[in-house]
Structures are given as C-alpha cells and as structure tokens.
C-alpha cells in the first residue's frame, strides 16, 4: 500500500504532496533534510528556513494500492491548486517527473563508455562475462546498410562528408566516445564506421 500525505505550512497554507510505502521513515527524511538545508524541493526549503519547523504539519490523506499511487498523488496536487500555482510546493507531477527522469538518464548515459560509467575494473569484468556468454555463438547484430543511429535515435545516412569527418577526428586522436558527441552519432555507429563494418554507398579511397 502507498500512503498519500501532505506537508502544510501554517503561515501561508501552501502544501507539499507526497507518496510513500513507509510513512514514518519518509517523514523523518523530510524533517532531517529540511533541518540540514538540503531538501530537494527548494520552495519548501525556503519557507522552512523562513518560518521554522513549528510552522509545518504532516498529515496522512489516504492509503491506496501501489499501482494507483501516482494517480492519487496527481489528483491531490490538482485538488489543492495544481503544480502551476503557489498553493502547492510540488513543481512536477508523475507525467512531468517521468519526462524529467528520462531526459536526465539520457543525458547521463549519452556517449559514455562502460569504463566511464562503471569504472575500469567493473567494465573489464562485464567484458569478460559477456565474452564467456558468446563463446561459440555467431554474431547476431548486422549494421544497418549505409546508415547509423544518431544520439536522438534517428537513422542517419553515412555520407562521404560524415565518413571523412569521423576518420579525420580519429586520426588526430579523438576517442570514439568524443567523436560520438561531436557528430551526434551513437557510439556503435562510430565504431562501425571506423572499423569498416558498415556498407557504404560510395567508394572509399582510404
């Protein structure tokens, strides 16, 4: 079950809506973060710093099944005025939060190698595990003919200009992760171009 709760500022009646499986633990976390001036909601933190702990109350609104927690949290945000008003501290509902997290994760992982993400030791262990898994198996991945994927997920034709740009950047010492960011092409696309693992619709002189 999920507990839908609210934090109310008695000075201005502004409300923060939240949901949790462990209400007492979450309440303690809110209070500790606010007292330490590190709460993720800057508006709630500002008013807490201004008015003090005695001017805030915690109240349980309802308990609901886990699968409708987001819907009920959104409902109560709207009930008290909505995220676009000064009545509610929340600046994101479940829909805008999911978009934000998706973009945040995308920007974090974009163009990064396993070493950059997990460290050299973990990346090497992952490589060995994957290598063992594929012993005796045929490669099932076939590069797209004449095309690679952009970082935005679109298919991009490998033109002579793009091909030359990638190879020139590699020649002067750029890493493939760096070339990926510069050209807006996914890492595996850069890899396939550099290692001639992709069908090119033009004659290569290199």
Average pLDDT figure: 83
Quote the beta fraction. 5-15%
Shape: elongated
Unreliable stretches: none
Fraction of residues in H or I helices: 40-55%
According to CATH, the homologous superfamily of the domain at 2-93 is GIY-YIG endonuclease
Question: Which sheet architecture does the biggest sheet show?
Answer: 3 strands, antiparallel
What is CATH's topology name of the domain at 2-93? GIY-YIG endonuclease
What is the rounded distance between the termini?
63 Å
User: Do you know the CATH architecture of the domain at 2-93?
Assistant: 3-Layer(aba) Sandwich
Q: How do the strands line up in the largest sheet?
A: 2-1-3
Please tally the helical runs, counting DSSP H or I stretches of 4 or more residues.
9
CATH level 1 class label of the domain at 2-93: Alpha Beta
Kindly name the structural category.
alpha+beta
Number of strands: 5
What's the helix-strand series? Answer: EEHHEHHHHEEHHH
Whole-angstrom Rg: 25 Å
Summarize the structure.
This protein has 206 residues and is of the alpha+beta class. 47% of the residues lie in helices and 14% in strands. A three-stranded antiparallel β-sheet has the order 2-1-3.
Question: What layout of secondary structure does this protein have?
Answer:
Layout: E1 2-9, E2 15-20, H1 23-35, H2 42-51, E3 56-64, H3 69-79, H4 94-109, H5 114-118, H6 120-133, E4 147-149, E5 155-157, H7 160-171, H8 176-183, H9 187-194
Helix pairs in contact: 8-9
């Amino acid at each position: 079950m999920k507990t839908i709760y609210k934090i109310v500022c008695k000075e201005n009646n502004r409300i923060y809506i939240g949901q949790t499986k462990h209400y007492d633990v979450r309440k303690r976390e809110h209070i500790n973060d606010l007292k330490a001036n590190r709460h993720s909601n800057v508006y709630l933190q500002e008013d807490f710093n201004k008015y003090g702990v005695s001017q805030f109350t915690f109240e349980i609104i309802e308990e609901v099944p886990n699968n409708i927690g987001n819907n009920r949290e959104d409902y109560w945000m709207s009930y008290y005025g909505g995220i676009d008003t000064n009545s509610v501290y929340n600046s994101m509902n479940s829909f805008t939060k999911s978009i934000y997290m998706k973009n945040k994760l995308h920007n974090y992982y974009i163009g990064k190698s396993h070493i950059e993400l997990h460290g050299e030791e973990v990346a090497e262990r992952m490589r060995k595990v994957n290598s063992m898994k594929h012993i005796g198996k045929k490669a099932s991945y076939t590069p797209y003919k004449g095309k690679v994927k952009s970082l935005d997920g679109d298919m991009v034709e490998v033109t002579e200009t793009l091909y030359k740009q990638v190879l020139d950047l590699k020649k002067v010492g750029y890493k493939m992760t760096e070339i990926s960011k510069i050209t807006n092409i996914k890492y595996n696309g850069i890899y396939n171009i550099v290692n001639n693992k992709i069908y090119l619709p033009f004659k290569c002189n290199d």
